[in-house]
């Protein structure tokens, strides 16, 4: 058993002292900013933000083509006095002027680039009488460890470090060679928003199925904070970056894929030469009806700066990606692979040994400026709750399955509370129907002979020990067909989709039988979502969920056998388990934490559903979902908060209520002839659309009001409130790391208050995962003998004063048989097929015990004589809530898992009148 885990995170080393780097800094200056904004306004007369320059493409171009540029500053397109460029050495005027001129020309139509050419000549001239000149570079010391402490003791780094420091670290590491198995890997820098990536280049090759597949090592570098930690962290995560060598899609199906361009700089030798890959986006342009460079890609401007070399055109790159990844002349380009464009024989992920080797290489390259954060150690041996014993040596086969079936049936009986359960199965393949009907009695332990057949051969009924289940199976017919869509000019996409949904609702109403006082569930076999990808908004899944909810029925879907690789029996099993979950027939197993947890504790979980106009119904919505779990309370153990009626309702009723929301008829936008919605507030020149004044503040106030009201409803017994900080902090800013303080809750602009004011026995736990931004560091277990591997448990470190913990679950069964030392980047002779393996490391779930009954909290609330909480016990409880007999370890504690999945029913439909 491992007793320590190591996280791939680093912090400024206090033993090193101040960390200041002399950098060249360039500001646009007021004159040049005024000139460029004037050109922007002239090129785009419809812009509502003429003073906000669309500088993202210019920044990308400068990072790729100007030697020495490390990073670009924030908001430089809005204010010419702010730092624009950070560089190791000043970029010469004869380099900077053509880049700015080419970018300025790109703001105008392709047949009118005279403005950009004129600007380039004026910038090159050096004439003292010229009013527009390139600004002078300034030398400034930049503190790369600059931060302040929040009131709660959390480090708050300077805003510029989120982009500047990852780039600086990436270039530092790119100068070094990583060697594995005697083979060297060289890295290039890829800029990535508020971070940076290192990509091994040229890619590795893997021969499989008479084809060459390409892949690289990829390291993502980001800056983050940890609650109550006095120094910020730099996280370095490791992945496999796969490259596309063929695209099994048609051009019009390519929404947007990343392309990294490797091109030599057309300028004299400079620092960091050859260390960067240029980031572009390739996709189908529905206006021009052809493939094009999109999303501020600098690729279209590069040929203007370098007329000697041959650069790939979008259609050529799409038709023959392998040619360009191998290079044409001294120019190469790689299309980043995504599963939507076809199969790939290289598996994702790395195993712990290879992660550890890369991590050690990073640690060596960052000394002495950054030091690794301390290892985490176990805080509890109680890793799991009271689960049923696993089958194994000495155990009678089938006993555990029988016990689990009895548990499910008891939970279903409790949830139904004497009502019959009516299930409709709409199938497209006989195999799916047969699998569903065979799996149901096995899952809930219905004895043989209890089935009551019907004369029509469509209905099956089981009655056993308080459970009355009636299943009717019929062909799906047109119910599962693609939604009919239109592309009428001048009509909003959300409205057209709403009309298609209403049409499917009418079809469902014609097929639905009235419920006879029981609970209703509909299971529909539909094609995989890839079948509907060619026609936007044609997937019927969400329309069917809305339609059946109007009939009072919950819904579950199963994919047709031709659209999935998983076994039919396995899919049928999970279909029923999810149906049971929607019925509320699930509860957390008894915990094994100890006497420090109150016996009558209830759990409450909050989840914020956020849909934009790209959401499932093309309607934006923000909705708070709250779920309450009361173990051992009999019927209604799982409930949801009905905000409209201000009451707790059974979980199935919550799902149906969430699906009934409607939105007013959409307005304030226009639609192009291609069916794409264009917000009137968007700046076509490339600026980000501005939010409507006060909208975010109104959402925040309303969400916080609802949370306060919910806390009042939970005061009757000890409560554990669970919230996902990454999900909720947008509308509850008091959950941002810099705003956190131990045993305090903050709402709005008011000072934070003692959390016990919201509940005498309230505890508040925040969880956070990587959140697609590397917010929580990767990890691997290790021992004193250089062994590495996996480990499950609850872990803590001394420097967080016992309030922040890590929860790690067991490894997935898919990697259980893979050796921990599997090497994919440079396979050994014994592991030639290693690149084809899929490796996956369990993620770390960060648990912050924000509010508990600490000594100070008890004293402040007049209860100094009561025994204080041990934060580690509450973190262990949250960890154990991730486990259930029916599931592999959940990504989040069960109550939070239920709240998040309830969000699938938040499907607002636009008004059509």
From TrEMBL:
<feature type="domain" description="Prokaryotic pPIWI-RE MID">
    <location>
        <begin position="461"/>
        <end position="591"/>
    </location>
</feature>
<dbReference type="InterPro" id="IPR025085">
    <property type="entry name" value="pPIWI_RE_X"/>
</dbReference>
<dbReference type="InterPro" id="IPR024996">
    <property type="entry name" value="RNaseH_pPIWI_RE"/>
</dbReference>
<feature type="domain" description="pPIWI-RE RNaseH">
    <location>
        <begin position="603"/>
        <end position="908"/>
    </location>
</feature>
<dbReference type="Pfam" id="PF18157">
    <property type="entry name" value="MID_pPIWI_RE"/>
</dbReference>
<dbReference type="Pfam" id="PF13032">
    <property type="entry name" value="RNaseH_pPIWI_RE"/>
</dbReference>
<dbReference type="Pfam" id="PF13111">
    <property type="entry name" value="pPIWI_RE_X"/>
</dbReference>
<feature type="domain" description="pPIWI-RE module N-terminal">
    <location>
        <begin position="9"/>
        <end position="415"/>
    </location>
</feature>
<feature type="compositionally biased region" description="Low complexity">
    <location>
        <begin position="681"/>
        <end position="694"/>
    </location>
</feature>
<dbReference type="InterPro" id="IPR040496">
    <property type="entry name" value="MID_pPIWI_RE"/>
</dbReference>
<feature type="region of interest" description="Disordered">
    <location>
        <begin position="665"/>
        <end position="702"/>
    </location>
</feature>
<protein>
    <submittedName>
        <fullName>RNAseH domain-containing protein</fullName>
    </submittedName>
</protein>
